[in-house]
Each structure stands twice: as structure tokens, then as C-alpha cells.
């Protein structure tokens, strides 16, 4: 060794040392929280900070579109990150990565009515799939045990979200995503269903798929295309056991915990029609093809922002 | 900030700053060389060291199976890495990551006859696909411009391999993989075709696929299953232009340069039948579904070890 610098580290990882267990805190399992972020809501950040999983075991990854809205969101996010990452060591996240996209968003505006138009869905979901993949492929490391997909507009979850989902020891597990609103009929606070992408497949949907062109996709929640799938949002029972599990064929990405090994095996978010499914729904199908099942918790709720 | 440590770095990446150009050295583009490695050949390492792309722009990633052979390969690889990474700074690789698999290899032995039996192919190629995905998903970072897939038994390439492949500015580009041997008939050195996975599709193969069960895969190079695909190995011309390009429908992984954005979009190595294709061949198809084409250089040769 003929210079003064120590040789750069060669990093060895024994994949068998990486666990994903029912008790991830006791086993010091690392969690990568991934959020595609088009808009910044302070309530999202506050809820993230309210999670009581040790922050030193959490890494954060964001991907932000190249739009004006994206630039605003970026500035707001950065301000909050700087604040949190200036806290004493134990209260900071292990690391934070922000990717700024180079592709234009396919939609000019992100307002809900525009986003949810059926004619916009395929191009929008394909772009979302690519954004999720870019984020995943560049932030997951050899020591990541779990990946929590958490949308930027999820503003209320139990503080034990990570532990609760992990305690089921499932490869892929989704919380049930609702939305709080003020009900004008009763003039009181209420909640309604939001994420329709968590579902159990139906014969009708399969038949629809079989008749489609190879690039066509099935979408959930559009009257023009009734699938008769069993949606997890409708499985919620009043006072029901939050630990109740159902096996799912499609999942959404609003609040979804995935064992990192599922992604490592190659399960990603197809930006093309995969069994006529795309993005998170296609992900569940791809994971299934790799031997991994998806699950949902109908009575375990998280809440989406109400625009 | 109420302690003495600086806050941990928050890393921002502008994806538009990441280029993949015809002149990657001038543009300081980083290359991640990924090698699934079941056996270590000194000739592989020596050839790797002979590449004249700046090492400071190259990161290496290896994945090694959990077999006795794997342990031997691991020890030999480590010894060489230690040696190279102790060189003065400019002569070291930017970083080296070694993943040791936790899953058993599906095959007990790695000898060529056993590996190439048709009955072993599906389980073997699926395991290879998962190994490649694990390696890719955990080593690719936000600053990776190119990924060079280089098998551990590629023992001879031009020293300008990376620049030469990159100069074509293709999303995916494969060298043509041959094997040197001593020809007993002529009693002189000779070479013969090796990697049959670089091909242009045929109507016969498509028809075979259409008649197969959904989990069945097409394999190349087996007399029992003639596909009549045009294999790149047979397109080599004596004294032919090494710059000649052909568009491919299937690729092999022996020496394959991929723009990192192709992987980032979600193109991975399917461990399941994807359009009746698996692993590297399935990767080409998946990339195509994502809008990326594959190319090969029939007259640009690399050589596989002769067991
Ligand atoms: N990076 C990125 N994130 C996006 C883009 N569009 C939406 N998002 C984010 O992706 C997640 C899901 O999108 P959203 O529009 O909320 O979907 P919806 O709730 O199903 O209508 C949210 O966290 C958004 O902030 C985009 O073009 N790029
Ligand atoms: N990590 C890992 N690498 C493997 C395994 N089997 C083979 N390899 C490596 O993967 C590459 C391709 O495999 P190889 O057996 O050479 O394929 P062939 O040349 O097509 O017969 C080579 O670099 C091998 O060293 C395995 O089970 N795990
Ligand atoms: Mn949303
Ligand atoms: Mn080989």
C-alpha cells in the first residue's frame, strides 16, 4: 500500500443476516419509507414524525415531479427535513434521499377530478409506476429489511403503523385507506372509502381482461367498467378487529408494507399492461408470479387528505 | 441544533444531471459492473483490470451463491479485491459490494453438462434471475449512469469494452460471446459460438409460445425445441465491421451494457415465464414493453471460459 489513504471500504453483506420478523424493532430491522410526492402536505409530515418506530432505523426516499407544483412541494419538504435532521442524533432519520424527476408529468394539473378521469388513467398510472420504480431501484440497499410505500397525501395513521403491519409477517400488506370529510347531510364529521386498488379478483374482471387487447388495462372504480371485484374498502366492519387479514389480488400504494426481499426478487411496478393490470395492482400480480402473496387489513385504517 | 454532530446528509439528486452519452469518459459517467459469480477465474479478474475505463468511475457488485464452490470463489475474489483496492487512489474501483446469497443454489453442481440440461433450465434460470435482481436492486444508486452485466466466466474482452458498447448510444447492447478452444481436427487454436441468448425472434418461436401453458418457457439451443430464431452468434462475419448493429428480441447476460434508466423504469429479470421468456431473455422483452429496444454487435467479440 504505497499511499497514505486507507483503501476504500469493500462492503460484504450476508443476505441471511437480514431478517424481516414480527418484531422488527427488537431485531433492529431497517425500514425504507418511499413516497412519490407531487404535493406537500404538512399533515403528512406531522404524521410521519408521529410514527414511533425508531427513526434511526428509518430511511426516507422521495421522488418529486418536474412541475411547478413539484418545485413548491420540494421547497416545503426540504424545510421540514432540515428541521428534523437537525434534531439530536436519536431523533433523526438514518438518511434521506430526494430524487427530482427529469421527465415531465403526463398531466398538467394534479387536481383530483383531472387525475381520476378514466381517459387519463393509463398514462398517469404508467408514469407513477416508473416513478415508483426509479425511487425503489435507486434507494433500496443491501441492508433494507422492509419497504413502506406511503403516499404523500396520507395524513393520518396509527403511530404504530410500521410495527402493526409488520406484526402480520406477510410479504405484502396493505392498510385500508379512507378519507375524512364533513358530511353535509348529518352536519358532522364522517369518513368515506378512498383507495379502491386493494381488491380480491372476480370472474367478471378476469373475463373482461381475457377479451381485451394486450395493452389494455382494467381499472377499478369506474362505472363504465364494472369489475365486480371485492374491494377491501367495503370489507371494513364497524368495530371490527383491526388485526383481521384478507388475501388480496390487487393492492394500492397508499400505505403498503413490503418485505424488501419481494422487491429484490424482481417485483416492481409494471408501467405496461401486466395481466391487464398496471402499477401497484400489477405489482401484486407480479409478486404473486414470484410466489409472494398480498394481504390487506380491512379494519386497520389510514386516512387520505381531502382536497 | 443542540448537539455537536452535523446533521446527516440529505442527498438531493437531479435525475436530469445524469447522462448516458456516446462519450461516457468525457462526461464522467459512472458504470456499475454487476457479476453473478459462482466460480472465480483469475482470467476474469485480470481482464476486468485490463479495462481502460477510469476505475474511479466504476463500482463493482457481485452476488455469490451459498454453496461450497461459492465460498471458495468468495475467498479468491476477496484476495484480488483487497489487492486492487490497496493501489493508489486513481487505480482503485470507486466501490465494491459483495452479496452473499441466503438461498441454496437449485443445482448441486455447476458443471457445464449439468447446468445445460433442459430439465434443469427453468429452475436454474429462475434462480439466476432472482440473483441478478437482488444484485441490481441493492447496488444501483441515484448516480449510476450505466450498468454493465459481465458474467464471471468472461475472460477476454477488448480493453475498451465499456466505451465501445456505450459509443452506440443504445438502451441495451450486447457483445457477441464466443469461446476459444483447441480444435483437435486442425490441431490449432480455434473459437466457437457460446451465448445463444442473443437472438432475433422467429414465427416458429412465437407459435411455440402461443401453444404453451402459461408457465412454460422457450429455451434457445436445444434440439428438442427448435425455434428457428436468428441467433447473433451465427451473424458473425469473418473480418466483419465490429461496429455493425443488429436489433435483438432476446439478450444474454454475458457482456451486456444497459442504460441505468432502463432498469430504473422497472426492467428487471423475470424469474417467471414472461411471454414464455425468462431471465435475460425475458428482460429484453420487458424492456421492450417499457419502450426500450435491444441491440447486439455480431462482430464485436468477447470470450467465455472453456471448462
Ligand atoms: N413523483 C411523482 N409523484 C406523483 C406524481 N403524481 C402523483 N404523485 C404522488 O403519488 C402519490 C399518488 O398519487 P395521487 O395523485 O395522490 O393518486 P390518487 O390519490 O390515487 O389520486 C401521491 O403521493 C402523489 O403526491 C408524479 O407525476 N410524480
Ligand atoms: N450468484 C449466483 N451466480 C451464479 C449462480 N449460478 C451461476 N452463476 C453465475 O452466473 C453467470 C452465468 O452462469 P453460468 O453457469 O456461467 O451460465 P452459462 O455460461 O450460460 O452456463 C456466471 O457468472 C456464473 O458464475 C448462482 O446460483 N448464484
Ligand atoms: Mn392520493
Ligand atoms: Mn457462463
Plain-language structure description:
The structure is a homodimer of 307-residue chains. Chain A is of the alpha/beta class and 307 residues long. Chain A has one domain: Spore Coat Polysaccharide Biosynthesis Protein SpsA, Chain A (Alpha-Beta Complex). Chain A has eight helices and 13 strands. In chain A, strands 2, 3, 4, 5, 6, 7, 8, 11, 12 and 13 form a ten-stranded mixed sheet that branches. Chain A has a two-stranded antiparallel sheet with strand order 9-10. In chain A, β7 and β8 (188-193) form a beta hairpin. Chains A and B meet through β1, α2, β4 and α4 of A and β1, α2, β4 and α4 of B. β4 of chain A pairs parallel with β1 of chain B, so a sheet runs across the interface. The complex binds guanosine-5'-diphosphate (2 copies) and manganese (II) ion (2 copies). One manganese (II) ion binds at residues 151, 153, 304 of chain A. Residues 151, 153, 304 of chain A line the site of one manganese (II) ion (MN).
Percent of residues in β-strands of chain A: 15-25%
CATH fold-type name of chain A? Spore Coat Polysaccharide Biosynthesis Protein SpsA, Chain A
Ions, cofactors, ligands: which are bound? guanosine-5'-diphosphate, manganese (II) ion
Largest protein interface?
A: A-B, 57 and 57 residues
Number of strands of chain A: 13
Amino acid at each position: 500500500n504505497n499511499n497514505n489513504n486507507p483503501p476504500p471500504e469493500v462492503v460484504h453483506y450476508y443476505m441471511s443476516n437480514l431478517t424481516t420478523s414480527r418484531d422488527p424493532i427488537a431485531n433492529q430491522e431497517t425500514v425504507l419509507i418511499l413516497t412519490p410526492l407531487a404535493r406537500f402536505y404538512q399533515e403528512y409530515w406531522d404524521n410521519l414524525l408521529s410514527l414511533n418506530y425508531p427513526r434511526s432505523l428509518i430511511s426516507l426516499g422521495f421522488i418529486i415531479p418536474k412541475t411547478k407544483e413539484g418545485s413548491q412541494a420540494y421547497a416545503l419538504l426540504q424545510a421540514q427535513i432540515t428541521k428534523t435532521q437537525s434534531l439530536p442524533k436519536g431523533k433523526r432519520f438514518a438518511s434521506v434521499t430526494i430524487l427530482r424527476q427529469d421527465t415531465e408529468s403526463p398531466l398538467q394539473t394534479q387536481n383530483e377530478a383531472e387525475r381520476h378521469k378514466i381517459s387519463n388513467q393509463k398514462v398517469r398510472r404508467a408514469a407513477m409506476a416508473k416513478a415508483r420504480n426509479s425511487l425503489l431501484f435507486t434507494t433500496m440497499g443491501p441492508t433494507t429489511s422492509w419497504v413502506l410505500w406511503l403516499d404523500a397525501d396520507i395524513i393520518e395513521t396509527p403511530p404504530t403503523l410500521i410495527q402493526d403491519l409488520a406484526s402480520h409477517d406477510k410479504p405484502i400488506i396493505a392498510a385500508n385507506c379512507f378519507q375524512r370529510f364533513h358530511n353535509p347531510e348529518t352536519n358532522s364529521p364522517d369518513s368515506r372509502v378512498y383507495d379502491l386498488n386493494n381488491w380480491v379478483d372476480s370472474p367478471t374482471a378476469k373475463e373482461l381482461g381475457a377479451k381485451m387487447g394486450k395493452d389494455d388495462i382494467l381499472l377499478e372504480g369506474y362505472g363504465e367498467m364494472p369489475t365486480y371485484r371485492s374491494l377491501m374498502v367495503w370489507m371494513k366492519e364497524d368495530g371490527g378487529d383491526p388485526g383481521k387479514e384478507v388475501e388480496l389480488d390487487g393492492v394500492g400504494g397508499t400505505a403498503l408494507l413490503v418485505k424488501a426481499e419481494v422487491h429484490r426478487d424482481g417485483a416492481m411496478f409494471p408501467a405496461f399492461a401486466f395481466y391487464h393490470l398496471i402499477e401497484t395492482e400489477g405489482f401484486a400480480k407480479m409478486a404473486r408470479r414470484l410466489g409472494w402473496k398480498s394481504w390487506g387489513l380491512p379494519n386497520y385504517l389510514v386516512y387520505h387528505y381531502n382536497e
